[in-house]
Amino acid sequence: MKTNVVMDVSNLFRMSFHAHSKEQDDILLAMANKSFMDSINKHARESKCDEVVLAFDGSRNWRKALTRRAADEGNDDCVTFKKYKGQRRDKLTEKELEKLERFDEHVVEFREMIREYTGLLVLHHERLEADDLIGGFVSSRRNEKHLIISADRDYLQLMKFPGVTQLDPKTGKKLSLIDYDNDPEYFMFQKCIRGDAGDNVMSAYPRIRETKIKAAYEDDFERNNIMQHKFDVAYLHPKSGDALVKSFVTSEVFEENEMLMDLTKQPEIIQDMIQSAIENALATRGTYHMVKFLRYCNRMDFQHLIQNIQNYNKLLKGPSLTV
Asked: What CA–CA distance (Å, rounded) separates 260 from 86?
């Protein structure tokens, strides 16, 4: 059975940025690249994998576009008024935001270098998140093993597919669903009820007890009862700043949360986009070109990679990586 190491590169680079954000730009970039390259090399070697798959976030996230348009224009694209991940950068100072934007530009350059000058499989589409691409890759290859490298617990839902495991790169430990009865479907049901404050996704039933969620998951009658629940939420109008109150029905918010968070329930047009992006990545896979790779490293002054290139050659050639 083929084994893949699947990495949420955007998640890994963000972790590195926040861990070393006080460093100067050149030092920050060098540390981030060293950490990333060492990480993929380590996991490819230890898992004896056949393929390393690198997934990157796009810059025109379809979830952000959809929810922001609905919130700003008041149209019917979304039930709620929440802008997806709308508060992520609000706490950054102007200087910190500029630094992050420069870092993001480097990640784009790094992505294109990896795509053109190595044999690694790079998944990317401007309108998709790494989550979408990883979900699509895993779900379309259910007869293969997948080791997902990411601290993002949203990937636990993909354990409903055989052969999927997830490793937290911060701890080096595998993540589990033990708190959800080892049931990925229950994990997703609870998540869609509770929402996700970190991603600015609203709860479909504020302040509901876990016992009630579990009862609804296990019993259709209980599920029907909570789905009919109605509640009000106070919020500020995005343009006028006026204090408003909006009424919601749990079933409608739950369905929207599924669309935003379940990696198998995106709109059909997005699912088609995911499969097209994966097919395109496979069709346009690059070839390892050590000279051009080293030229890039020299320009960026990545001395660690230059001095230890022999340690990465096997990885950068691409499949098969099995040793």
From this structure: 14
